[in-house]
Amino acid sequence: MSLHGKTALVTGSTSGIGLGIAKVLAAAGANVLLNGFGDPTAALAEVAGHGGKVAHHPADLGDVAQLAALFAYAEAEFGGVDILVNNAGIQHVAPVEEFPVERWDSIIALNLSAVFHCTRLALPGMRARNWGRIVNIASVHGQVGSVGKVAYVAAKHGVVGLTKVVGLETATTPITCNAICPGWVLTPLVQKQIDDRIANGVDPQQAQHDLLAEKQPSVAFVTPQHLGELVLFLCSEAGSQVRGAAWNIDGGWLAQ
Ligand code: NAD
Fold first, then answer.
1. What stretch(es) of the chain map to CATH 3.40.50.720?
2. Phi–psi pair at 126, nearest 5 degrees
3. Looking at residue 122, what DSSP letter applies?
4. Is the alpha carbon torsion for 240, 245, 251, 256 positive or negative?
5. Are the beta carbons of 228 and 26 closer than 8 angstroms?
6. 34-56 pLDDT, tens per residue?
7. Which of 90, 128, 198, 255 is a good FRET partner for 76, with 20 to 30 A between their CA atoms?
8. Ligand 1 centre from 15 Cα, in Å?
9. What is the pTM of this model?
């Protein structure tokens, strides 16, 4: 399918899953606006070369004023956002009674509140152009819990709920809103959790295997490419009646 003429904003796309999704959407012909921290040069180079326009905006999505600036930039440079992929997210692992309050606040701000803000800022333009796709990268942790992840699990359950409401509020329009719930994907966010196991004396290969084997029956990682292809399907005509869904892609995690 061709996304030629459509503009995709992928939040948190300087690395990991967001970058993988941005590459698939760009290869399908979309203009792509990247966002995220760090030097974007390498990410821009990976996404460019497919004919669509590519740019990066460095907004910190935990800051509502910067969120507004991101959408003003998208309007001025791209004429608005047709495909919004709410992907940016962070993790912190600690038991609830030791969980740092500032970590709770920053995880809720980015993993949940930024999804609300981006959605409310993107929807008026989608309604005006009478087409849109909102894809929220939630997690299996939007549907089940894991110890030590109180803020992340609360935020991702919130994203799944938000997705249902936006899916209903747009149900009679050519705009859809869905969540994707990945299991383990080997990105910097997950590598940090593997590194914590290695720091506790576990062999690196064993640490990776144990992390997978505890939760993901396939004992294989989901890849950013897999997730990009699923986003692409949700952007297609065949995906137009998938609404308010929480679609797991998790090597069997949620089947247990
Ligand atoms: P990652 O750490 O590789 O990438 C996170 C991206 O978000 C980076 O581009 C980073 O710069 C950006 N970012 C961080 N804070 C930001 C902020 N305040 N404002 C703007 N951008 C910010 O992580 P990832 O593993 O690719 O995760 C992407 C999404 O996928 C997250 O929402 C995560 O919860 C979700 N997810 C990941 C996995 C996994 O196994 N990796 C599984 C399920 C869901």
1. 7-185+222-255
2. -65, -45
3. H
4. negative
5. no
6. 999 999 999 999 999 999 999 99
7. 90
8. 8
9. 0.98
| Whole-angstrom distance, CA of residue 48 vs CA of residue 54 | 6
Q: What is the DSSP letter of 111?
A: I
Is residue 182 lining ligand 1, measured as CB closer than 6 Å? yes
Which residue type does 109 have?
A: A
- Check pLDDT > 90 for residue 190: yes
Sheet order of strands, 31-35 included: 54-57, 31-35, 7-10, 83-86, 132-137, 175-182, 246-249
Alpha-carbon Rg for the chain in angstroms: 18
Please report the atom of ligand 1 found closest to the CA of residue 63. Answer: 18
Q: CA–CA separation, 176 vs 119, rounded Å?
A: 11
Cα of 172 vs centre of ligand 1, distance in Å, is 31
Amino acid at site 113: S
Taking the C-alpha atoms of residue 108 and residue 126, their distance in angstroms, rounded to an integer, is 26
CATH 3.40.50.300 fits 7-185+222-255, yes or no: no
Catalytic residues: 152
Q: Tens of pLDDT along 156-168?
A: 999 999 999 999 9
* 89 Cβ closer than 6 Å to some ligand 1 atom: yes
- Residue 137 Cα to ligand 1 midpoint, Å, equals 9
Of the chain, the end-to-end C-alpha distance in Å amounts to 34
Cβ pair 217, 251 in contact under 8 A: yes
